[in-house]
Amino acid sequence: MRKRLTMTAALVLTLAAPGGHAQEAGLPDLAQVQAALDAHPSVQAAQARSGAAQAQARALARGSHEVTFQGSYMNRSVTREGTYDEFDAQLMRPFRLPGKARLDKEIGSYGIVAAQNRAEDARHQAATLLNDSWWDWLGAAEEVRIDRQAVANYETLLKAVSRRVELRDAAQLETDQAEASLGAARLALQQSEGRAALARTRLRAQFPTLALEGEAPSVPVPVLPEAGIAALGQKVIEHSHEIAAADAAAGGADASAARARAERTADPSLGFRVFSERSGEEQGAGVLFQMPLGGGHRRALADQAEAEASAARADAMATRFAVTGMAEADMSEARYRHAAWQRAREGLKAQMAALLKLRIGHKAGEIDLSDELLGERQVHDALRQEVQARAEAMRALTRLRLDAHAIWIGDPAERD
Fold first, then answer.
1. At residue 199, what are phi and psi to the nearest 5 degrees?
2. 295-304 long-range contacts, CB within 8 A, separation 24+
């Protein structure tokens, strides 16, 4: 009994002092996180698309106009005159009208910016997945530790009650009650061990390079950021790659619309032609000129590009609304999760204080075993609620810092 009293008092002392660097505790090593994010398929795919956008920009800068060669050879036979060798050859190349090359380069530049920001956003999404999976594992592992301690407490209690029954100082009913409580605690332990194993499996499946050997770290005490939640929320908007990508896509769509309007006047083609007839008796050379005459088709394409540009601008505004809403949600969740954990901690301390009295009273014979078992179960439930609230608070605070590019992603100089 004394051992259980000492353990409970230690838990109360642990909960009383948050600690100065608890906010950084519990997170995986930064180098491992960077390697895990680099190896994630979604990040690699987005980086490949960024390379494709750079290649497309080079192609747009050069233009699609190429030199075309065309030639023919004939062997002509004329009655009573003989046989003649004849040929002709021509080179033709279209030329972009003034302003079109500039627009093509502008479209390519916007494409690169959009693709690079989408690549960074893919890294952000992978980091968010890592954050959620990480706290799922740590929270479940913390529950396992609590359930193991509960099983140990009930086993100690059962031994004490069984000894009292042997000494005829207690009824057999108390042994049955203690065994029932122990069975329930063992069931809870098996369930929490299963959840922890499942969370670890999911984390390893998504991030196989992340080192997960040994026992999961303890869930640290959540600490509000020194700069304040509102300051981090503002950085969520300022550093959003979603907004940057959407703005770049809108700029590219505007440039594409301008390019489509310019394309209503088709590009001319210039060329050079040489020919030889009647085995060289007739020879010639000349300059060729070709100019398509645009019509309704080009006008419709220009209207389509203008409508798509309007849609892209609206999408960019919607993205800004969504990111602003996400920042507000991040701040609200961080505040209420932290407050909920504080209430859970206060409730746990009160339950522990009550359990101490129940244990002392039962040992003195003034409290029935059923009352102590009820107190044990209530403390067990309060411990689980506290660790769940603590894990959710850490998840929310880390998510806010992640969205603000304060950890793992973004410019290293701007991280915490």
1. -65, -40
2. 298/263, 298/264, 298/266, 299/264, 301/260, 301/263, 302/257, 302/260, 302/261, 302/263, 302/264, 304/260
Query: Is the separation of the CB atoms in 84 and 279 below 8 Å?
Result: yes
Among the listed residues 209, 242, 207, the one whose alpha carbon sits nearest the alpha carbon of residue 46: 242
SS3 77: strand
Cα(84)–Cα(110) distance, integer angstroms = 58
- What are the pLDDT digits (tens) for 88-130? 999 999 988 889 999 999 999 999 999 999 999 999 999 999 9
- Could you give the angle at the alpha carbon of 160 between the alpha carbons of 154 and 165, nearest 5°? 120
- Residue type at 185 in one-letter notation: A
Cα→Cα distances 365→101, 192, 218, Å: 94, 34, 37
Fold that domain 2-65+98-266+312-414 belongs to in CATH: Outer membrane efflux proteins (OEP) (1.20.1600)
pTM: predicted TM-score of the whole model, two decimal places: 0.83
Three-class secondary structure of residue 228 per DSSP: coil
* In 263-408, alpha helices (H): 296-363, 369-403
Degrees (nearest 5) of the Cα angle 186, 189, 190?
90
The Cα angle at residue 278 between residues 274 and 279, in degrees rounded to 5: 80
Q: Which residues contact 242 (CB under 8 A, 6 or more apart)?
A: 117, 121, 319, 322, 323
